[in-house]
Structures are given as C-alpha cells and as structure tokens.
Design brief:
With 812 residues, the chain is mainly beta. It is 2% helix and 55% strand.
Length: 812
C-alpha cells in the first residue's frame, strides 16, 4: 500500500526532545509522617498517602517502613484509611524532621478494633474524591492500571482490557486493535461515541459535539492507566450519556532518570507488533517518547492493515509551584475492509469476503500544552490547550451486501477535522466546622471545523483516495463549523458522620452550523433521468442550556463506601445525521437533539482481600435516535429509517467481585508470595421504548442492549513474576434495531445471538525481561457482535477465531 511509506514519517518535533540540556537540581527537605487516631492517639498502619496535585500515591505507612516524603515545594496531600475520614493537609516546603497527623474515626465504626483488620488499597480500582484536577466523590468511577492487566495488550483486545468494568458491551469486529468500540447501559458502542473520549484530559474525538467518534485510540502498550467516569461526568466533561473515558499515556516524569522499553510481538495471521519507548527525567526538565508500529494480514481475506503511532512529551519545572507540559501525538493507519456477510453466508463460512475493493485510512495529529500550578494557599490551577488536525477516508462499494459488486466506480467519503480547544480548572479548599471543603470551577472553549465530501472514485481494486471529478459534486459536500462554550462548577460538602454532598452545575452554549450542497438524482423504472440538480443548503442551530446534578456519599461500617447521584445528560445531533447518502438507510430531516438523565446508587469497598463494587442504575433517554424498519411506498421494499424513535428507559445493576484467596489468611505486615485471584463481573440491563404514539416500537427492547453480560477470570501468580490465568466472557443476545426484527435479507438488521469466549494467558518476568503468551478465543467460537449499516460493512461482521500472540519485553 502506498500509504505505508508515510507511516513512520513523524513530525520533526519528536526528535528535538533529545537536544535539551538538563538544568541544576533543587534543594529538598525530608519529612517523616506518623499517622494516628484522633480519639486515642494509637498509630495507624496501611494508611495511603497521596500527592493530590501530582495525582499519585506517595507512600503507604506500615509497621516496618515509615513514610518519608522528600520535596522541594509545598505539597498538598490526602491520607486515606478505611474506617477514618479522609485527611487533607499542606506540607510546607521548609517542613523537616517528623510530622504527626491525626485522623478522625468515622462514627459508624468507632466500636470496631481496626488494628486487627488487614487493610487493602481499594482506591486502586476507582478514583479518589479529588483525583488530579477533577472531583469524583459520590460517582460511579473505575480505574484500569494497564501494568496489572494480564490480557493481550499487543493488539489491545478490549474484552480483556476492560474485563473488570461491569456492563460494557464490546464490539469485536476488528481483532487488530485499531478500534475501541464500547457502549454501556443500552448505548451504541460505535466508535465509543456515547462516551466523552479523552487522552491526558483533552478531547481526541473527531468533533466533541457534532461527531464524537473516536477514530483514534492509543495502543494499549502506550497507556499507563484508563479512568472511566459514568454518566455523572457530564457536569465536568460535557454532555455524553455514557460518561467519560480518559487514557493516561506514559509520559515525561521529573526526577525519574533514564527509562527505556522495547516490546515485540508476533501472532496469528501475520501479526507483527513493535513498540519502543525512551526518555529521561531530570529535576527541572524531562522528556519521553513512545512509538508503535503494527501490521497484519487479518484472518479474513481482504483484511490486511498497518498502523503507526508516536506520542512524545516534554515537561518543565518552571518554578517550585508551576509546571508545563508539551506533547504531540501522531497516529496513521490504513486497513482493507472485507465487508459484511448475510446470515446465510455467515452460517456457510464466516471466513469469506465478498468485498475486495473497500479501504479505510485515518490520520491524526494532536499537539497539546498543559500548565499546572498553585494559586494561593489552598488552590491549584490547570489549563490545557490542544489542536486536532485529522481526517478519515473510506472508499469502496457501499451497496447492499446482498448485491454483487460488479466492479463499477466506488464511493469515496473523505472527512477532515480541524479543531482547537481550551479548558481551565481551579480547585480550591476552605474550612467549615473543622472540616476541609473542596470546590471546582471550570471553563471550556471549543471550535470545531469538520468537512465532509461524498463522491465517486475509480473502479480499481487498490486503494484510491482521489475523486474522479474533483470540481464537480456528484454526491455531497459540506462544512460543519461548531462552537462550544461551557462553564461548570462542583462542590464537596464534607459533613459530620462521614457524609458528603456534591452538587454541580454546567452551562452549555452550543452552535452547530452547516453549509454545502448535494446532488439529487431521480430516475424512472427504466433508468432514465427524470430530475438531476444540485441543491444548496445553509443552516445554523444555536442553543444554550443548563445541566444539573447532585451526589451523596457516606463511609459505612468496615470502611465501605455508599454513593448515589443524579445528573442530566445531552447529546447533539451527529453531523452524519444531517447529510449523507447511503443506500442502506435514510435519515429523517427533522432530527432533534437527545436529552435525558442518569441515576446511580451503589456500594463499594474492600475487606481482607475481597474487593467489590455493586451499582444499580436508571437511564432516561428522550428523543432517542435510532433505526426503524420502513417500507418504500414506490418500490415496495424495506429500508432502515434513522429518526427520533422516542423515549427509552434502561435500568439494571452492575457488579464486580474480586477475591484474593491467599490474602484472606495473611497478616497485616505480610506480603504473600502466591496470589490466587478470582474475578466475577456481571451486569443486568432491561431497556425498553416508551412511546404510545408509535405502537411499532412501544414496549420493544432497545437495540444493542444485551440483557446480561458476564465475565470471570482466574489468575494464579507467584512473586508477581509468574502468572497464568484464564478469562471467560458471555454476552446475551441483542437486537440491531428498534423494531426488534430477527432477520432481514440484507443482514443490516436482525438478531445478534449470544456468545461466549474463553481466553488463556501466561506471563513471566525475570528482572528487566518479560515474556507473554495469549491464546485468544481458545475454543474457536464462531460469533459476531455487530451488524453494520455502512462501513466497514454493511452486514454481519464476523469476529476473530482462535489466535495466539507471543510477546517479549525489555524495560530498563
């Protein structure tokens, strides 16, 4: 492919990171922390101490190893200990020697002898009340540490990476790891577009308001951790019903010294994956760069791919309280698409392709600048500026999958995205009734400019991204400028008896604009042209609105955490719903924005090697956009009609239970060499339409809502160096459209049957070296997770059969 030549031509600014000279060091002071109970002055052990500004765990106090903090600046810390209220404190730069801290016991468990109970760090699986520059108290949050994921990171198999996230419906139509397509609580997984997808806290989607599809997703090997905040994140991050996914990439770290990593993988179907990372962290300046190249043939004919990625980051210590971070991401990939299958073809042989001329490519350039600092005694400030210069091109035969490709001129859809964004946040602290109170204020400005063109290209079998008639509109051509301004605020009110109340508000100003033209061509039954003209359109849709939310939480007996919240959500009309020509469906010209709200109530915590999180939820969705099956009165054929199908209600529960069986019997100061962990993740969802005026769908199940999703894993490890395990995943049946049709000749709508997958993994580590073997879909299950209405289909997209990946790593 010609596109391969460009894959590794990354911008020169990645190379410049090598030329910086490290500056002299700072003077530091050391503080030894002792933490005691306020009630009886007894010493507390296994207290987790966090750097709130730096968003990191500083130390964990135990009986044999005190907590020593070395710092050259004021440090705002948070102390967490099960059964006690969180303690926030600023350690001054000049502080030395020993500092005694006192934590207040939660009234709910005053009578319990905590010295006899082993405490684990439950916060590793969800976000703290104040984590980085966000407030997450009283919310359903989850955190994935990629170093602890035992699954396949070479090709980023999502059911393994997100194994501990309850309720996620994962589309698995691409085994190459090019896409992350996940949905939750009855929301469409396509390109994860119902989540606000971010990288290092800034947007990476094509257009955050009008086209939130995440065509770019960082490779799993480049990710340090993933944070997920469910629907209540709309107040801080923007109005998406699913919530927010934030990828924290490996990056520059001050005072870290030299870091290198080499990761190589080979696998089935010609897979080759190579990652290289290196960097240096001095006391005032640091840099890090990570590159990945991946290619493969795919398991079906006509499904080869290649991808290149680089993320580089430069960090400065400006003063003792201010830091800056400059970064740039490049992402390029091209893939041939084998197209979909009909139900009959899938049953006959899923390993076949009847589309050999379809291709798809993506290019993503994303620079960003971050400034962090302290304002006043108890305030900190963060601002981010980012730009996106990107595009995606799709070429191929768009016709119904039941039609034969006769080799005519192909359709070419080209998009470009030119966006710029800014977001600033301030987190402040104040004291009321001897309790620290916290608040967040933020502002966001976003300017997007999306262009979309659809027309004809050649009839060849190779990739071609040029129009036959560049100056003539033979399909459609549009510009979609968008503007988004937002103000938001949240507050944590810490009350007696460990209660917290967290109200929030967000004011959104949104303006969606469109200008362009499309060709309207009508013919008679004999193919004679009756009407052929170019129609010009211009439209604008300004609107503004408030989003409100409130949450409550309480620390219960045994350190369990109760949380509940309610928040409003909003989703703008997608640019693709404004004007696109697709023979597989039609679009209602009177589409409206979608609105609704999320509700959560749950319990989470850990106790003696047992960790759990159980949540009940309710999602109200008005003006929901979906597909109906209609009949063309002229041609007497059925077609899919995309419109506001009505109101929907989804409720259910999400549960996670993880048990380390060998830790149950260990003592407080012991770290067992052996670990035997069982994880059980189950969710139940019931989603129905509620629209009396449309009896065709009233009471019908919402499309793409499996009634149940179950994942379970068994992992045995020794000394954190040798690991073997297995994961079993089951997803219940679901429908592809709102009418709950079970079959159609074009395979675009119909039933998606339930399926179950077994994955097996083994990993070993010797000092700086590691090796890993992943056997995916070990039982060679034949299944599919998606019926596509357009690219990369249309039709059924079969998922990967049994395959194996072998990886070697060297980190030094």
């Amino acid at each position: 492919m010609d596109f391969a030549i460009q894959l590794m031509r990354f911008p020169n600014n990645h190379i410049i990171l090598w030329i910086f000279i490290l500056l002299p060091g700072l003077s530091f002071s050391q503080v030894v922390l002792n933490v005691m109970s306020l009630e009886d002055s007894s010493k507390l052990y296994n207290v987790s101490v966090y750097d709130v500004y730096g968003d990191s765990l500083i130390c964990k106090i135990n009986a044999t190893q005190p907590c020593k903090i070395t710092t050259g600046k004021d440090l705002f810390i948070e102390c967490k200990y099960r059964g006690f209220e969180d303690l926030y404190l600023t350690i001054k730069e000049q502080t030395k020697d020993t500092l005694n801290l006192y934590m207040r016991r939660s009234l709910a468990i005053e009578a319990e002898s905590l010295d006899e109970i082993m405490v684990t760090d439950a916060t590793s699986s969800y976000l703290r009340d104040i984590d980085g520059m966000g407030i997450y108290a009283a919310r359903k949050t989850e955190r994935i540490d990629l170093d602890k994921v035992a699954g396949n990171k070479a090709i980023g198999i999502q059911r393994q990476i997100y194994a501990k996230i309850a309720g996620l419906n994962v589309w698995e139509s691409s085994g190459s790891g090019l896409n992350t397509e996940i949905g939750a609580r009855g929301l469409n997984p396509a390109r994860s577009s119902n989540f606000n997808v971010r990288q290092n806290q800034y947007d990476i989607a094509a257009d955050a308001i009008g086209y939130p599809d995440a065509y770019y997703v960082p490779p799993a090997e480049a990710i340090k951790r993933i944070d997920i905040i469910r629907g209540a994140s709309s107040l801080q991050y923007g109005p998406q019903f699913g919530g927010t996914i934030n990828y924290h990439l490996k990056g520059a770290e001050l005072s870290s010294g030299w870091r290198h990593e080499v990761l190589s993988s080979i696998g089935s179907f010609g897979l080759f994956n190579q990652s290289l990372g290196f960097g240096y962290g001095g006391q005032k300046i640091a840099f890090y760069t990570f590159s990945n190249y991946r290619q493969g043939n795919g398991w079906r004919p006509n499904s080869g791919f290649q991808v290149g990625f680089n993320h580089s980051q430069l960090a400065f210590l400006i003063t003792k309280n201010w830091t800056a971070q400059l970064e740039h991401t490049t992402y390029l990939y091209e893939a041939q698409q084998p197209g979909g299958l009909t139900d009959a073809l899938f049953a006959q042989d899923p390993n076949q392709s009847i589309r050999s001329r379809n291709y798809f490519r993506v290019y993503w350039y994303l620079p960003a600048l971050t400034l962090n600092g302290k304002i006043g005694k108890n305030g900190r400030f963060n601002t981010k500026l980012w730009m996106l210069r990107a595009g995606r091109d799709a070429v191929g035969f768009l016709g119904n999958i039941a039609r034969v490709d006769l080799g005519e001129n192909r359709d070419l859809l080209r998009d470009t995205y030119k966006n710029i964004g800014h977001e600033s946040r301030y987190i402040g602290q104040w004291t009321w009734a001897d309790r620290p109170q916290s608040f967040l204020l933020g502002i966001r400005n976003y300017f997007g400019n999306t262009t979309k063109r659809q027309g004809l290209t050649d009839s060849l079998s190779s990739a071609s991204y040029n129009y036959l008639s560049p100056n003539i509109i033979d399909g459609s051509q549009y510009k979609f400028p968008s503007i988004n301004h937002a103000l938001f605020a949240e507050h944590i009110f810490r009350l007696p008896k460990s209660w917290k109340i967290v109200p929030g508000i967000r004011y959104e100003i949104v303006e969606s604009n469109g200008e362009g033209s499309f060709r309207q061509l009508n013919t008679d039954l004999a193919g004679n042209i009756l009407f052929d003209t170019i129609i010009n359109e211009t439209f604008t849709s300004p609107r503004s609105f408030f989003l409100l939310g409130i949450g409550v939480s309480k620390t219960l007996q045994n350190g369990l955490d109760f949380y509940a919240n309610w928040s409003q959500n909003y989703r703008a009309i997608n640019f693709n719903d404004l004007r696109i020509v697709n023979p597989n469906f039609r679009i209602d010209p009177n589409l409206k924005d979608e609105r609704g709200y999320n509700m959560d109530v749950g319990f989470r915590g850990s106790y003696n090697g047992v960790q759990f999180d159980i949540t009940a939820y309710y999602l109200r969705y008005a003006n929901r956009i979906g597909f109906l099956l209609e009949v063309d009165s002229q041609w007497l054929t059925t077609y899919r009609f995309r419109t506001n199908v009505g109101q929907s209600n989804t409720y259910g529960f999400e549960s996670l239970l993880e048990i380390d069986w060998l830790q149950l019997k260990s003592h407080e100061d012991e770290t067992p060499l052996w670990s035997l962990i069982t994880m059980v993740n189950y969710s139940y969802s019931n989603g129905r339409y509620a629209l009396e005026e449309n009896p065709a769908i009233d009471g019908k199940k919402i499309e793409l809502v499996p009634q149940g999703i179950f994942r379970s894993s068994f992992t045995l490890s020794y000394d954190s160096r040798y690991t073997v395990g297995a994961q079993w995943s089951w997803t219940g049946e679901q429908f592809a459209d709102a009418t709950n049709a079970t079959f159609s000749p074009d395979a675009v709508h119909g039933l998606i049957p339930s399926y179950q997958i077994l994955d097996i993994y083994m990993k070993a580590r010797w000092k700086q070296l590691s090796t890993e073997i992943n056997l995916n879909n070990a039982l060679n299950t034949t299944y599919f997770t998606r019926r596509a209405s357009g690219y990369p289909g249309p039709g059924i997209l079969p998922s990967d059969p049994r395959n194996i990946t072998f990886s070697l790593g060297w980190v030094f």
